[in-house]
Amino acid sequence: MDRLDNTVRPYAWGSTIAIPRLLGTEPTGEPQAEMWMGAHPGAPSRTSRGTLVEVIDADPERELGAEAVAKFGPRLPFLLKILAAGAPLSLQVHPDLAQAREGYAEEERRGVPVDAPDRNYKDANHKPELICALTEFDGLCGFRAPAEAAGLLDGLGVDSLKPYVDLLRAQPEDAALREVLTAILTANPEDMADTVTEATAACTRLGGPYTPYADMARDYPGDPGVIAAMLLNHVRLQPGEALFLGAGIPHAYLDGLGVEIMANSDNVLRCGLTPKHIDVPELLRVVRFEASDPGVLRPEASPDGEEVYETPIDEFRLSRWVLPGETARDLTLPTPQILLCTAGSVRVGEHGLLPGRSVFVPAGEKAEASGEGTLFRATVIV
Q: Which of 3, 75, 144, 270 is the catalytic position?
């Protein structure tokens, strides 16, 4: 197995202290948003044998196992991250597999450079994801019921929001959510900035359930995403709780530290809280306009102590072990795995792991864990 040396991405929304605190290092004063663990070409983990991309490319069946290669191809199908949000991420949605393939092929046909700022599809893969809170973690996930969203907007007492309130109360669910989101994103920018400014003042004055929107408006003043965010469920996860974000579900992470795992893709369509490109027609093609419960996940414990976060996809499987320090656990699997320590001190094989440290274990390789701490396991289902 290989100890991983991982890249920390300095996105502007990142916390300046959360990842250094986890790693036990001094903050630099710069944002440290995501630490990537895996074989994504944008920032592959490094090992003593080269990057994890190079290690897998040299012998995919040995590293990933024949079954995983047959099912997913000669690549690691997931990307594991530690995510530290100090400000809201973009309000966003991810395509399903068919939409990603179609969108990628169309942009390739039109010759849109893959690094162009108006490119939607960087690859032909979907991007389901799971976020598991390590600290209290705030986010937005899925649409509220239209009547609930109408009540929240109406409570602000902002005249320019009245047409949205009326639409939400008069139309069937799908039509109401679609028409209001479309109206928000296509409104005259100056008029919408004025509306957001007035709504922000009301959110600050009212507090309570309006506080998250006042907070995000400080980071994105005048952004229509502040109003769009009020259409979504606000969720506060406690440590150990998780959210699964499937295709078409609008969402955003607002604040907190978590372990995130996703299919190995960069495909993001943005809805707001961003200076980046928003392709409204393509966004409307991908979004699922239906109210839903956020569906907070709690791990299900197996008899051997593994706590599994169940999701409906096969590209990744996330679980954790809370090791008591008494007996060693055999974690050997016929599939590839990344093991990440998030608390305490854990030994996996010959590698001692402190918080934030991780190892890659090839398929079938003996993996025995001992010590006292928390160990997350990322693998696949074959």
A: 270
Phi/psi of residue 319, nearest 5 degrees: -145, 175
Cβ proximity of 229 and 91 under 8 Å? yes
Q: Is the pLDDT of residue 326 over 90?
A: no
pLDDT bracket for residue 186 (50, 70, 90): very high
Task: Tell me what pLDDT residue 171 has.
Answer: 85
CA distances from 291 to 129, 147, 168, 232, 235 (A): 19, 10, 12, 9, 14
Residue 12 has pLDDT above 80, yes or no: yes
The token pair at 107 is 């942009």
Known catalytic residue at 110 = no
Assign 3-class secondary structure to 132-181: EECCCEEEEEEECCHHHHHHHHHCCCCHHHHHHHHHHHHCCHHHHHHHHH
Tens digit of each residue's pLDDT (9 = 90 or more) over 226-271: 999 999 999 999 999 999 999 999 999 999 999 999 998 889 999 9
Residue 364 CB neighbours (<10 A)? 15
How much is the pTM? Answer: 0.94
d(CA 19, CA 24) in angstroms, rounded, equals 8
**199: Cβ contacts below 8 Å, ≥ 6 apart:** 156, 158, 161, 213, 217, 226, 227
